[in-house]
């Protein structure tokens, strides 16, 4: 293993901290199962091409490309499809798909076209409003979809090769070596 790489379990632990310690059982099961990564390479099995594009577009706004690749490049949309197919109970999968339909309905209502075809500033405004409602609603139905979408995006990204090796970094100072003699360190800074 490369010194700069991070294990999937450690990345998951860091993502759990970002999410406040709560990761849903189906998401956790999917991440810890080795076959889930292989499922990314297969053709989508649950999401239609339009739904796959919607998930990729939303995820890219949640984790955009900066000096490191964004969620789309990390394949988060494929991760979401694999988890929905292999790990989500039918009721939660249907609930998630209904949430995706709701995003497009809101975009059509506000801008006359599906979310993925809206201008970037229109998409950001829609996502900002969804985020505000999701967290204001607490654990209610309205907030479930967007909170789950963010969870899947964060977990998918930070447990991907891109997220774990290019975004998350061990220590910028290198490996900790506590057993070296003080005389080899030289002058200390405080």
For this entry, give a set of tags.
single chain, 190 residues, mainly alpha, 10 helices, globular, disordered N terminus
Account of the protein in words:
This protein has helices at 8-18, 25-32, 35-40, 49-62, 71-74, 76-86, 90-111, 120-136, 141-158, 161-167. Helices cover 62% and strands 0% of the residues. Helix 4 (49-62) crosses helix 9 (141-158), helix 6 packs across helix 9 (141-158) and helix 7 (90-111) crosses helix 9. With 190 residues, the protein is mainly alpha-helical. It is built from ten helices and no strands. The two termini are 33 Å apart. The radius of gyration is 19 Å and the shape is globular.
Element-level helix/strand string: HHHHHHHHHH
User: Overall 3D geometry?
Assistant: globular
- Helix tally? 10
Quaternary structure of the protein? single chain
Gap between N and C termini, in Å? Answer: 33 Å
- Determine the structural class based on helices, strands and strand pairing: mainly alpha
Rg over alpha carbons: 19 Å
Strand portion, in percent? under 5%
- Helix percent reads 55-70%
List how many beta strands DSSP finds. 0
List segments where confidence is low: pLDDT < 50 over at least 5 consecutive residues.
Answer: 1-6
Look at the structure and give the mean pLDDT: 79
């Amino acid at each position: 293993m490369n010194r700069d790489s991070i294990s999937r379990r450690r990345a998951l632990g860091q993502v759990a901290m970002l999410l406040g310690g709560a990761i849903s059982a189906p998401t956790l099961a999917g991440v810890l199962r080795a076959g889930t990564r292989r499922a990314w390479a297969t053709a989508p099995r649950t999401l239609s091409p339009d739904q796959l594009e919607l998930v990729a577009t939303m995820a890219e706004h949640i984790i955009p490309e900066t000096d490191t690749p964004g969620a789309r490049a990390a394949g988060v949309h494929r991760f979401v499809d694999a988890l929905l197919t292999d790990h989500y109970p039918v009721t939660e999968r249907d609930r998630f798909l209904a949430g995706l339909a709701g995003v497009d309905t809101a975009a059509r209502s506000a801008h006359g076209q599906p979310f993925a075809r809206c201008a970037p500033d229109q998409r950001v405004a829609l996502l900002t409003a969804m985020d505000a409602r999701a967290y204001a609603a607490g654990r209610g139905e309205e907030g479930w979809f967007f909170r789950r979408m963010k969870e899947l995006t964060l977990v998918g990204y930070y447990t991907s090769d891109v997220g774990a090796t290019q975004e998350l970094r061990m220590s910028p100072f290198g490996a900790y070596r506590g057993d070296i003699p003080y005389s080899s360190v030289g002058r200390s800074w405080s």
